[in-house]
TrEMBL record:
The keyword ATP-binding applies. It is found in: Cytoplasm, Cytoskeleton. This is Kinesin family protein. Its main location: cytoplasm. GO terms for cellular component: microtubule. Belongs to the TRAFAC class myosin-kinesin ATPase superfamily. Kinesin family. Residues 290-317 form a coiled coil. ATP binds at G90, H91, S92, G93, S94, G95, K96, T97. It comes from Ophiobolus disseminans. The keyword Cell membrane does not apply.
Amino acid sequence: MNVFARWRPLAATEALLEEIDRRTDSNSRSLTSVSIKRRASAEDRPWTSPAAFNAIFNPEDDNDKLYNDAVAPSIPRVLQGENCSFFAYGHSGSGKTHTVIGYDFQESKNLGLCLRAAKQLFDAFNDQNSCQGLGVGLSLFELRRKTAFDLLNNRTQCFVREGPDGKVHIRGDTEMLEGGKVRVRAIVQQPCWNFGSFQRELVKGLEQRATGSSSVHDESSRSHAFLQLEIVNQSLVDARNALFDRQSELVPVGKLATDIMMEEDAKSVIRGQDGKWVPNPDYQKDQTRIDTIEAKKARCEARVLAAEEEIEAIIESGSTPCLGTKLVFVDLAGAEYYEGNGFQSQASKRTLQERQEGRQINSDLLALKEVMRAWSQSQKRIPFRSSTLTMILREHFTSTSKGNSTIIVTVSPAAEQFAATLNSLKYASLVGAVKP
Ligand SMILES: Nc1ncnc2c1ncn2[C@@H]1O[C@H](COP(=O)(O)OP(=O)(O)OP(=O)(O)O)[C@@H](O)[C@H]1O
């Protein structure tokens, strides 16, 4: 994995605070280690990371610099059809949102990494003949504990489940549609055909992130935010809609087939005197009824399969290698590091729910670290199932080549946040120290 660290500047309110003493050192493989201590005093012993970082960004480095060094090199690979993923890790207020999304949407150099990447993609679509008709399908959701909230669909609550196909699906409630169709809502993917509409959709969706919170920071740092960009064209969007429609037809037919089978099975047996189930001499299973519904179900399944094959065929058509390619940005919840780190007074103020959430976040982040390490070492068994976060990320890891996945750890230089900064740098260096 590529690993970068970014020091944010001290905020105006922190101007009088002492800064962490920090140094960097690069080895012959151009990998950097970072050495920090709480203050410049000679008695303070430094903590030094392994040479795990591809680069360390300083407080004066803006989003433009970070984008050019950490993300822009991936865009040609995305246009060649390689999936890429970027994770922002850091404690609350360390600069993850500033990095991934940004707060100034007017100045192109201040845009966050996700928006800059989308801009570069749209520029490439406009410049290259082979990319005509391409757009970006945006999905945006937040994972809090084990539940996902669709930010492009009024924070609809969605559940993360592993399907019989082994794939992880994020689905909302079941809706009854006209004609008896039953739809299980999937996470919305909003197709955007130019950068302006992409930015509007993203900003509108992100406004949902703060809903119901008295403090945006506290709320946002308790959830993981996923921003997924998939390269699409109109045929792919239409084919996905057709699949969705056919799945909606299949659900009630599949349920009816199961009900009929169970009803016929139940009628065809009776309990004998010894309490055991024996064939019912007065009832003959209605095989015609069963065959009719099974045939209808098979026709629906074939239509679903055909729609899936149509999607594959569109993606494989080869005219644009990047069709269906995904670029994923994850703004991870900040680790909770209160207990045992000199934050007991803050820890004691937290509610039971906050403590439970904190434990869940820590266990998600631990699971992610283990997955990243196992994946970087190409281990046979990668523990994706150990948390909902890693279950969702399985598809991204299994479809992403090494070198196309990046973690950016954001850190504060304020000495009073030393414990959190140390925690974040240790996390990133453990991931980055594993090089294939
Ligand atoms: N590199 C930077 N340059 C300038 N300002 C920054 C930088 N990083 C962060 N900031 C500022 O610091 C404040 C906190 O940053 P931000 O909201 O990005 O933190 P966060 O890690 O996303 O927090 P949370 O997890 O709580 O949402 C913001 O006002 C932001 O503009």
